[in-house]
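Course assignment 3, question 2. Fill in each field.
Student: A.L.
Task: Predict the tertiary structure for the chain below.
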Amino acid sequence: MNDAIRKELTVDGRRLSYLDFGGPGRPLLALHGHLSEGAVWGRLAAELAGEWRVIAPDQRGQGESDRAGDYSREGYLADVGALLDHLGLERVVLLGHSLGGINAYQFAARHPERVEALVDVEAPVVFGLEGPHPLAFLLGLPYDAPTRDGLIAALGPAAPFFADRLRENADGSWRLPFHPEDMYESEELVHGDHWADWTASSCPALLVRGTDGVIPAGQAAEIVARRPGTVAVELAGDHLLPVTAAGELAGAVREFLATL
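Answer field:
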């Protein structure tokens, strides 16, 4: 995880935990997607070290951050603003993957004066309006168990995806780094038509799309065409580019940042 320092702040009585990868560079706030956490940006932080100081929160209800009473759009955006205020940062580059990408461009729409540039990694502008819920499988997963081995066994086929990120509670029991019902709700609340948000800001923007990701090619072209100052990069990979194509993603982001 490089030399990241874990810190936290309190927002409405909740702990919001974040990793500060440090350094003298300009600030870049990186927002992870559902079922992830700030540590996923370790490779990006290493690649940008020296020129950019990457700060990566565990968004509400995930990683080391406390569960929230709601997972509304405004709730997520309020967390971003609270973290920037806590850090004393007036203006940052805002990067996000999936859920984090939507949070990023929606925050820029409401607070354009605080966002120098946007990086949208596999975050659609219109999605979830039809078809099955993509995180429906979560509702069959346990949240915790008395032992780590017991939780891994109960997770079944999902265990390999989360086994290295399980948390031990103070009483010795073990839990997932998110509550399945929370993330199901959060995913449901992020669905919609967000064109008004995407086109509301005018800072430079980069769209990074995976060839086998969730953004259709036609929508990607429209994302670029409908927002001046937006460029796109396509990487060979699936939706989980921060994990499956971390090096290529870091290179694309570095090239974009060099144009600012």
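Instructor remarks: The chain is about 35% helix and 25% strand. The chain has one domain: 5-128+182-257.
Grade: pending
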